[in-house]
Amino acid sequence: MSPESTGQNEHYISVYRRRFRAWRGDRPFWAGLFTMAGGLPIAYFPYADLHLGNMTLAMSTTAGAGSLIIGILLITLGFTMWFHHIVRVFAGVAAILLALISIPVANIGGFVIGFLLSLIGGALSVSWAPGVPQQDGEAQPQTGEAPAGERDPLAKDFPYEERPAGELQPAAVPQQQGPGFDPVAGSEAGGHRAG
After folding, report:
1. Crossing angle of helices 64-83/88-105, nearest 10°?
2. Which of 18, 35, 52, 191 would staple 78 via disulfide (CB 3.0–4.6 Å)?
3. How far is CA 188 from CA 86, 174, 179, in A?
4. How does pLDDT run across 53-101, given as a tens digit for each residue?
5. Strands 49-52 and 55-58, bridge-based pairing
6. Helix residue ranges, H only, 4-106
7. What H or E segment, with its residue span, contains residue 108?
8. Alpha carbon 177 to its chain's center
């Protein structure tokens, strides 16, 4: 009998799968995939011929070049969502607009298939947000508030101090020491000032 080591001899397919999963998690992967899948029927159908026995149906329209341009732009936007995800909102809005334009131009948006796929891909791209990496063993707060130990750096400029329960109360304001007390100078300046 020989002991088997599971840590050293990992299969290369599982390593590639883990790398692909990490790559896919850092970008709007499904948005790009739906957008590219929507661009294919929009670009293909105006140039396709349907054969029914000896009869050939040509689905080409007068706007075949427009369909091809819309389809190629949608495929390009899908790749942009994958490899340049900083502009994902622009790419999503452009994909939605091109999907809407494809209805009158490209055979009802690639017979509605390309229209729906591009619309879903654009909406997923606009709504995607990158995840926040977790600290070592710390759970991220579910609310939009900062953790209890952290304070807003601008909060020190405001005359509020924090109670132990997290409530804010006005800071103690120095009481006037007499009729001519100047709070800036911190001493009494007499009854009136010389002007």
Report:
1. 160
2. 35
3. 59, 13, 8
4. 888 777 666 667 888 899 999 999 999 999 998 999 999 999 999 999 9
5. antiparallel
6. 12-25, 29-44, 64-83, 88-105
7. helix 107-111
8. 57
Length of the chain counted residue by residue: 195
Are 102 and 63 spatial neighbours (Cβ–Cβ below 8 Å)? no
| CA gap 11, 30 in Å, rounded | 27
Mind listing the pLDDT tens digit for each residue in 161-195? Answer: 555 555 555 555 555 555 665 556 555 555 555 54
**DSSP symbol at 126:** H
3-state secondary structure of 161: strand
Based on the number of CB atoms within 10 Å of its own CB, is 63 exposed (0-12), middle (13-18) or buried (19 or more)? middle
Distances (CA, A) of 171 to 98, 105, 162, 187: 56, 66, 9, 20
Assign residue 8 a region (left: φ > 0; alpha: ψ between -120 and 50; beta: otherwise). alpha
- pTM score over 0.70: no
